[in-house]
Design goal:
303 residues; alpha+beta; Immunoglobulin-like; 2 domains; 5-stranded mixed beta sheet; 17 strands; 22% helix; 34% strand; elongated
Length: 303
């Protein structure tokens, strides 16, 4: 392990209660190898949970996959459900390790990966750091960000920077914000076929933006058209960025100007896209919110 990791590592205790719970879960396993895996995972989860509680960050331990007896048996999971945010993976390492194992079953649906060094001989642990994403089975410890950055990461997830307000009246005059591209630029050719993508009214040149929900990408597209009574007819679509479907449980919501949900639908895993059509008048404000696994992105609009 590099010296720099020790410089920002955070020492934490391994309590007797933590040891007892970890051993209890280990005793439920069918063989010694699985028992040791579960025991170390549980120690790491509980050390991180104690730390987050100390930092007054609410968690839902019993809602975590690592607290589900069947999931513990069938997968190598060490997640901790952080209230309102999602699953934080807590991976254990032993002293003098330079790599951390990150099983493929944990590469999605995670808001980050925390690495905890366990020194049971001294009943102590060190929170070495974290990474926001993982896609390989071995994570070099010298790539970790500091524990302080973990708190910043969680704070940003809970209170994301406000999006720039998209002015649809300006859009209808041709002044579209440069952060928006076109559906044609963001979707692949198969998705652009009329039979799939455009059962609604949006065409290939509709303004669109790629969004990222903790590693799960999607594309938000918008079309605004004036109608006879001086109001505006708006079509909103949410597409997966590649062949396939939106993840099950993806929520596509329209909120009014005070943040109340006016319209909401949830992907069941069979939709090519989700769509809402709304009517507004000049000066109206509303927001679109896309939510997956308690992580959400909001885009604000004004007419």
């Amino acid at each position: 392990m590099t010296q720099s990791i020790y410089e920002f590592a955070l020492p934490l205790p391994i309590t007797q209660a933590t040891r007892q719970t970890a051993q209890e879960f280990a005793n439920q396993q069918p063989n010694p190898q699985k028992a040791e895996q579960v025991r170390l995972n549980t120690l790491a989860v509980l050390v991180v949970e104690d730390y987050l509680q100390l930092m007054e960050i609410p968690t839902r331990l019993t809602a975590s996959d690592s607290w589900n007896r069947v999931l513990r048996l069938g997968a190598d999971v060490a997640d901790l459900q952080v209230t309102g945010l999602g699953q934080l993976e807590c991976r254990p390492v032993l002293p003098n390790q330079t790599l951390c194992s990150v099983p493929p079953e944990t590469w999605s649906d995670r808001i980050g990966y925390v690495v905890v060094e366990l020194d049971e001989a001294s009943s102590s642990a060190q929170l070495l750091g974290f990474v926001p994403k993982a896609a390989t089975e071995e994570l070099p410890l010298n790539q970790l960000r500091s524990p302080e950055e973990l708190l910043d990461h969680l704070a940003e997830l809970r209170h994301p920077q406000p999006s720039f307000v998209a002015n649809l009246s300006q859009w209808m005059q041709g002044a579209i914000d440069e952060s928006w591209q076109t559906l044609e630029a963001l979707l692949n050719p198969a998705q652009l076929s009329p039979a799939i993508a455009f059962r609604g009214r949006l065409g290939a040149q509709a303004p669109a933006k790629r969004i990222d929900l903790n590693g799960v990408a999607a594309v938000l597209a918008v079309d605004a058209r004036p109608i006879a009574d001086e109001s505006t007819d708006i079509c909103l679509q949410l597409h997966p960025p590649i062949d396939g479907f939106l993840p099950v449980g993806t929520r596509f919501s329209v909120l009014n100007e005070v943040g109340e949900v006016e319209l909401e639908t949830t992907a069941t895993g069979t939709e090519d896209f989700l769509e809402w059509q709304v009517g507004c008048i000049s000066g109206d404000r509303f927001s679109v919110q896309i939510t997956l696994n308690e992580v959400y992105i909001t885009q604000d609009f004004v007419i």
